[in-house]
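Q: How would the C-alpha cells look for this protein?
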Amino acid sequence: RMCTKCHDNGKAAQADNWKNVPSQIACGACHDNVNFATGANHVGGIQPDTRCALCHDGTNIPVYHQTENLTTHNPTVEAGLSNFTYEVQSVSVDGVTNNVTIVFRISDQNGPVTLLAPAADQQVALTGFTGAPSFQIAWAEAQDGIVNPADFNNLTSGVAKAQPKSISLVSNSSLTSRGLLDTNNTDGSISGPDASGYYTATLLGAGTKAFPVGAKLRTVALQGYFTQVSPAAARHTISAVKSVAGEERRQVIAAAKCANCHEWFEGHGGNRVIGVETQGLYVCSVCHVPGLATSGRGISDAVVNTYTSTGPGFSADDLKKLAEWGLSTAFPVTIGDQWALDLPVTTNNLKDMIHGIHKGRERVAPFRDARNRTSQGGNSGAITLLDLGRMNFPGIINQCETCHLPGTYNSVPAGALASTYESIDATYAANYGLPTATTVMADDSLDQANPDDVVTSPFAAACVSCHDSTTAKTHMTISGGGQLMVERQAFVAGQEQCSFCHGPGKIYRTRRRQRFRVFFRLTRLLPQRGGPILITLPSWQLEELIHGTQHPEGRAGRRYDVVCRQRAARS
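A: Here is the predicted structure in C-alpha cell form.
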C-alpha cells in the first residue's frame, strides 16, 4: 500500500501518476476483486478511465492507501493518531550496588510526553492509552569455554530459551507482573522528567531485573507499544537499544538496509520494530541469540487438541505444511501420541535464521520452523509454522552488502558462540528417539543450556544456513574444521580454520562482488575439444568449479574439472 516505495517522483517524471492518473489497469493490478467491465464491487458501477479522477483524485488516493504507522513512504496517518519515538540516552551500572540506571525519553508528534506519576498498582502510563513499552535487559556471560562472548546469551536470566529479562513501565491487569511505575514493585523505580523530557529508570541490583555481576555486553532495549483508546489503534514504534559504554555488541547489518525491502519490520505483533529510523543496534539481536532453538516440539497433545477445536486452529496453509512435513492432520490427536515431537526443529539464532529464510527455495533443505506461542493468551496464542521452501529472494542472494555493513561478513569475531539447533537436557537425551520421549521433556530442555544440546560452530553456522548441500557441509568440516550438529559438550571453541581461505584478503574471501578470470578445460564435458577456455566468473561459480559443488541453479549432477591455471583479478 506504500505506493511511493516504488513511485519516486525524484527519479521519474511521471511517478505521481499512481495518484494523479488513476485507471482500470493501474488500480486493478492490486484491486483485483473489482470487475470494471461489469461494475461489480465498484461503488460507481461501470465507468471509463476518463472519469476515475472525478472521485479518486490526487488528494484522497494517498488517504486510501495510508497505513497505521508513520513511515518514510507512509507520511500521513488517520487524523488524531499519535506517533511515538523512543530514545535510550544512556545505560550505566553502579560498581558497588549493581544498580542499573537507564536514561530514556518517549516523544510523540508534539515533543516529549509526560508519563503518569508512579502509584500503587499503576497499570496506565499515559492518559488516553493502554499498555506501555518495556525494557529488555540482555547481556553475555562466559559459556562453552569462551570467557568473553561476542554474542548475547542471557545465560543466567532465569527466563527460558535464553531470553533477556524484561520489565514494563506498567503492571499487567492481574498484577502478576509489576512495572516500574507501580510503587509496589520491588525491582526498581522511575523518576523525572528533567527539563529535556528524560526519565531515569533504576533497576535495583538486589532485585530480579538487574544484570548479573560480571556480565559483559550489558544492553537495554526499549520496545513494545502503547495502544490508543480513540481513535483505537496500536501505536507500534521503532525500538531503541543502548549498551553500557564500551560494551557494545558488534553491528553487522544496517537496519536501514532491511528497510529497503521491509520499510518497517514489525516483529512479534509489533512489539519489536526496526526501520530506516533505527539508530544503532537492531533489537532483534537481544532475543534471537545463539542459545535460542525452536520451541514447537514442546507443544502437548492436549494443547494441540484445544488449539484445533476451540482455539484459532491451523489454517489451510498450515495444514498443507504439516502434510508435507509428514505429520498427521487428523485432529484431535490421541493423547500420548506426542504429536509435536515430529515437528521440525532448528536454531532461531539471528544470523542462521535470517540467512536460511532469505535463501528460500535455493536451499537443499528449506528453512522450517515450528514455534509454540500458545502460552501467550491461552487459546488466543498461536502455533506458528514457517516453511520457506517456496520463497524467492527478491535480489542477488550472494551480494552480502544488500544487508551487511562492509567488512562484517568475511569472518566471525573471537568469542562468537555456537548456534543451538536443538535443546536437549539429560532427561530428554536419555529418551530421545524412543517411545518414552515426551513433549514435556522437549519443553523443559528449553529452560537452559545443556551439555547434550545440538550445536554448530559459529563460522560454519553462518555459512551452512545458506550452503547446506552435503558437499558444502563436508568441505566445512574437513577443510574448515567446522563442527556441524555436535553435542555442546563435544564442541571445541576456536578450532575453525575457515578464515584461512575465506577471511579478509584471502583468495576465496567472502565479499560483495568477487570475479575471477579463469583458464580451464572442461575435460568431462568436452574431452575431445582443444585448448583452454577463458571466461569470467563470480566467486561462487569458481568455488563450484574447484570444489565440484553444484549451485541450485545449475544442472543437477553436473561437475567439472579445472585442469589449467587460474588468474585472479581482484575487485
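Confidence is low (pLDDT under 50) at residues 512-530, 532-540, 543-571.

The chain has 15 helices and 22 strands.

Upvote if useful.
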